[in-house]
Design a protein that fits this description.
alpha/beta, Rossmann fold, 2 domains, 8-stranded mixed β-sheet, binds cytidine-5'-triphosphate
Length: 371
């Protein structure tokens, strides 16, 4: 629903062509269907982007002089405002008071980004990038189907020291585990994230425990597990660690030049298996399997064998051959369920994968199973 001013920047035909939907902006369009009431009731979420100083003022005053402001008065769903304007206008006490009023009425206001504005000036007032607006909007749409549940997630990749400056690590960025923690939070869970060297910041609103090695991750998980209703082992945990990490930096020349170096490695504990062994009744445990397939078995076949071996409830199987997963924004997985059909998630954002996982948990493993 563009305002009259918005249509001076981009006209209705452009909006209609790009969206494939009709554009409405007048209360007087299609009067018999009473559009402003119908649209306000129909919407599950309203996003106003950009929200100008004028729009904020009109909304704060409860004005109803176009379809957008009228619909804001009839909408009962969450409303997200993404203000964008020149810095002076944003910082003006009138605008700030309008924002405070709108927030006090339950509207959500995304603070503007800092950067280049429409002229040559820069500062706070820039419209946040679309992915940031989407990231702010998604939690407002989330079903609160994990409310009251305590969720424990491990994410990232462990590092096993070889000497004080080097380590054996892996390519996990932590993005999928972070998305899982984020969406559990959005869906109402209390979340603890055990974070091993994430490439991205940990989400706000979750308790973060930073860990380094497989041993420290194991300790954190075993400490937290008794309180958890759902445990997700998304971290890539080292299977082997150096038996005896050097106390000092390993030098190429130690008297004689070293032509090769042999590392003695020992097995680490299987944290997922330990969590399964110690699980309490009703606790849901979810593992991940990064597979590339082998000469004789496909990825799913290997995943199914792993689900049985590990004894968890769900196993999220990733095909990590080629460059398909690590560090990327998207993922493609199959969720194997020990007691139900597989759930295929075609290539999708890691947030969508996380949501499908939580949909599966909420539907198939509800908090209070019917006896
Ligand atoms: N995992 C774990 N502790 C380890 C290694 C892995 O808890 N020492 C967990 C991972 O977090 C993941 C699951 O086990 O949830 C499967 O990890 P993966 O590396 O795919 O399986 P492995 O058991 O290590 O089997 P393999 O490497 O032989 O495929």
């Amino acid at each position: 629903m563009p305002t009259h001013s918005a249509l001076r920047f981009v006209g209705s035909p452009t909006w209609e062509a790009l969206s494939g939907h009709p554009v409405a902006h007048e209360v007087w369009d299609d009067v018999p269907s009473v559009g402003h009431v119908e649209l306000g009731r129909w919407a599950q979420l309203v996003i106003v982007a950009p929200a100008t100083a004028d729009l904020l003022a009109r909304a704060a005053a409860g004005m109803a002089d176009d379809l957008l402001t009228t619909s804001l008065l009839t909408a009962t769903c969450p409303v997200l405002l993404a203000p964008a304007m020149h810095t002076e206008m944003w910082l003006h006490p009138a605008t700030q008071a309008n924002v405070a009023t709108l927030e006090s009425r339950g509207m959500h206001v995304l603070p503007p980004a800092v950067g280049r504005l429409t002229g040559t000036d820069s500062g706070p007032g820039r419209l946040p990038e679309p992915p940031d607006i989407v990231a702010a909007a998604l939690p407002l749409l989330a079903p609160l189907d994990l409310r009251g549940r305590q969720v424990l997630v491990s994410a990232g990749g462990t590092r096993e020291p070889l000497d004080p400056v080097r380590f054996l690590g892996n390519r996990s960025s932590g993005r999928q585990g972070v998305a899982i923690a984020e969406r559990a939070r959005d869906r109402g869970a209390r979340v603890t994230l055990v974070a091993a060297h994430l490439d991205i910041p940990a989400p706000s609103g979750v308790t973060v425990i930073e860990v380094d090695t497989a041993a420290s991750l194991r300790q954190a998980m075993l400490d937290q597990a008794p309180d958890a209703d759902v445990i997700v082992m998304a971290a890539a945990v080292a299977d082997f660690r150096p038996v005896d990490p050097a106390q000092h930096k390993i030098k190429k020349d130690q008297g004689d030049p070293l032509e090769s170096l042999h590392l003695a490695l020992e097995r680490t504990e299987d944290v997922l298996a330990e969590l399964v062994a110690a699980r309490r009744p009703g606790q849901v445990i979810i593992g991940f399997a990064a597979e590339t397939g082998s000469e004789d078995s496909g990825v799913i076949e290997l995943g199914r064998a792993k689900l049985t071996r590990k004894g968890c409830d769900l196993l999220v199987v990733n095909d990590v051959s080629g460059d398909r997963v690590f560090g990327r924004e998207t993922n493609e997985v199959v969720i194997l369920d020990r007691s139900g059909p597989d759930v295929d998630v075609a290539r999708a954002s890691k947030i969508t994968v996380a949501d499908t996982l939580w949909d599966t948990v909420a539907q198939r493993y509800p908090a209070h199973p019917i006896q």
